[in-house]
Design brief:
Blueprint (H helix, E strand, L loop, with lengths): L14 H26 L3 H7 L3 H28 L6 H16 L5 H13 L4 H21 L1 H11 L4 H26 L5 H8 L2 H4 L2 H25 L3 H28 L6 H14 L11 H11 L5 H36 L6 H6 L4
Helix pairs in contact: 1-14, 1-15, 3-4, 3-6, 3-12, 3-15, 4-5, 4-15, 5-6, 6-8, 6-11, 6-12, 7-13, 9-11, 12-13, 12-15, 13-14, 14-15
Length: 364
């Protein structure tokens, strides 16, 4: 009965590290928002708050949280492309859980790695899970890079970009190009015998250890599974690739609309389009902040960008508070709940890694 049905109990998570990241993100954000409020809020702010439309605020919250449903739908297409079968409810928990782990880790690095780990515990092989997350990130990177020239032009037209902002934006472009190059290499070298190369380069005392050799064999198998899974997704067909691209566009567009709609709710609808451009700049900059959740620097950066768009710095300060409430604090609550549900799922239904054995016989 063993035949690949060994159960893996529990999810390997450093909970103390998660708690430290959460505490750092929330504490820094709260302190920064208090300082921004004291420094920018004038007598016109209570008047603006009194005009805030509950409908537009609720719509902004719905769009900010609801955009992750597009990501879950895209993930379902990609999971099925590699032969996986994960329920949509588990995929929704995966994307929200990944959002949470991204928020409590530096550089938001825990987001993509968290999604890959959750997909693995919901039944995909390690290589397949990494491929699904990487392919989705690849599509997002391509779309953002294609929009990069237009974004720079619109930003220059809407508000003057500083040298520092331009530096961050072009750094984001360089990172995106590097990521795409690595994915392309994986597609072109699907049979790369990484395990044999590493074994040959390893010291003699390690080569003699059976456990080390098994580790390298498993690593090589997952690398080949990763490359093979990427190729399956590339050759999904025009209709499904178009659907993946459309869902990615909907994810980004929905996210960009949340803050501008909150601004409309404050009675400043004339700044709607400029706010969308500003939001694009903010979203590109956030992953480059090394502090969990982008806390501290994220609020200051948002205030700086929007103070160049809006007529009053107090209004920019108020919008900073609304943005962090909608995008960060509510996201932390929903994402944290999803993360706890994932932990509960793993405890109740330990993973049975049967897919790796199937893939090993596919002749990759």
């Amino acid at each position: 009965m063993d035949g690949g049905h060994r159960e893996e109990k529990g999810l390997s998570v450093d909970r103390s590290r998660i708690r430290r990241g959460l505490l750092a993100a929330v504490s820094l954000s709260t302190v920064t928002l208090v300082v921004i409020s004291l420094a920018t809020m004038g007598k016109e702010i209570p008047s603006a708050l009194s005009r805030l439309s509950p409908f537009y605020l609720a719509l902004a919250v719905t769009l900010s949280l609801g955009r992750w449903l597009w990501s879950a739908l895209r993930m379902r297409l990609l999971v099925r492309a590699v032969g996986g079968d994960i329920s949509f409810s588990h995929l929704v928990k995966t994307v929200f859980g990944g959002y949470f782990t991204g928020m409590v880790t530096p550089w938001r690095a825990g987001g993509v790695t968290g999604e890959a780990v959750f997909l693995y515990y919901y039944g995909l092989g390690a290589g397949e899970a990494a491929a699904v997350v990487s392919f989705g990130a690849c599509v997002s990177s391509i779309l953002l890079m294609l929009s990069f020239p237009l974004s720079i032009w619109l930003a220059q037209e809407s508000f003057r970009l500083s040298f520092t902002l331009k530096g961050f934006l072009f750094s984001a472009l360089a990172v995106g190009l590097l990521f795409l190059a690595l994915v392309l290499f994986s597609l072109l070298r699907p049979q790369a015998a990484l395990d044999r190369v590493l074994l040959r380069l390893s010291p003699p005392f390690l080569r003699k250890r059976e456990g080390y050799r098994r580790f390298l064999a498993r690593l090589g198998q997952e690398v080949r599974s990763f490359s093979s899974s990427l190729r399956r997704m590339v050759f999904l067909g025009r209709a499904k690739l178009a659907a993946v691209t459309a869902l990615t566009l909907l994810f980004w567009l929905t996210g960009f609309l949340a803050v501008p709609l909150a601004l409309v709710g404050l009675g400043y609808g004339s700044y709607f389009w400029k706010s969308i451009v500003a939001q694009l700049v903010v979203q590109i900059l956030m992953p480059f902040i090394p502090i969990p959740g982008g806390s501290g620097l994220g609020e200051v950066g948002f205030l700086y960008v929007y103070s160049r768009v809006l007529p009053d710095v107090g209004l920019a300060g108020l919008l900073t508070l609304i943005w962090r409430f909608v995008d960060f604090y509510l996201g932390i609550l929903v994402g944290g709940a999803a993360f706890l549900l994932i932990l509960r799922d793993v405890e109740r239904h330990p993973r049975k890694p049967v897919r790796a054995e199937r893939d090993s016989g596919e002749g990759l």
